[in-house]
């Protein structure tokens, strides 16, 4: 079996330094969790596990550097999807992060509904589909990740009607009362896109329940214990809480390097109370509220 993973971002990010591509590990919960799983699974060759990871390298890559990026990607068992900066802005910084992100996190006052964002979202999902079709084999298992690629399962299903396809959402799925704030055509396309998968997963039971409600009220499909019967197949929807590589973090916390760094920080803050937190600077993290 070969597992083909596709996400918006690759596990490495490309940047330019002195005119040459530089490669750094991508941060974030999705890549951290998936990379740990894939490395652990690949470390058991007796099980015959193989994988390929497809995604965007995090920046617009000039034509002069694409071959070098592709060579690095091949060594990492990955396939880069190249987007222009303009396309990435309208897709990622546009529809993904100015429409879906605030809406799915229950901050509808910040959501923007721009038709050109939606058009770009559809276009980029088709770009990912074309890149996938160039590398997919009929006996692969495909695993699509997160809100940036909600249209992708259906696009691939049209070409590989028998392929096992999984879709996992790494952020909340909102209640129908919030989801319906999207224009009807958009939300129907998003639901139908996800239902191209064989198995749809969420972090919590509430997200699973809200998705099933939105499926019923948006496109009219009922479910029986999380199974949705379509005309030609059954889609299973369930809850799969995603954890972290505990051993990796526990060992890092107890390492001599960490102990030395902790001692250094404590020495600078003698007599003061410390509050230590690591978070992305995003309004959904509630940083201001927590500091208060």
Description:
This protein is of the alpha/beta class. 43% of the residues lie in helices and 18% in strands. It contains eleven helices and eleven strands. It has helices at 29-42, 66-75, 85-104, 115-133, 152-159, 176-179, 184-194, 205-219, 246-253, 256-268, 287-291; strands at 2-9, 12-17, 20-25, 50-56, 78-80, 141-145, 165-168, 199-202, 223-224, 227-229, 234-239. It has a nine-stranded mixed β-sheet, sandwiched between helices. It has a two-stranded antiparallel ribbon with strand order 2-3. The mean pLDDT is 91.
Task: Considering the chains and any ligands shown, give keywords for the structure.
two-stranded antiparallel sheet; globular; nine-stranded mixed β-sheet; 43% helix; alpha/beta; 11 helices; 292 residues
The low-confidence parts are none
Multimerization state: single chain
How many angstroms does the end-to-end distance come to? 51 Å
Count of individual beta strands: 11
Largest sheet, spatial ordering of strands:
5-4-1-6-7-8-11-10-9
Based on CA inertia axes, which overall geometry fits?
globular
Radius of gyration: 21 Å
Series of secondary-structure elements, N-terminal to C-terminal: EEEHEHEHHEHEHHEHEEEHHH
- The assigned structural class equals alpha/beta
Largest sheet: 9 strands, mixed
Helix proportion range: 40-55%
Number of helices: 11
Provide mean pLDDT, rounded.
Answer: 91
* Beta-strand proportion: 15-25%
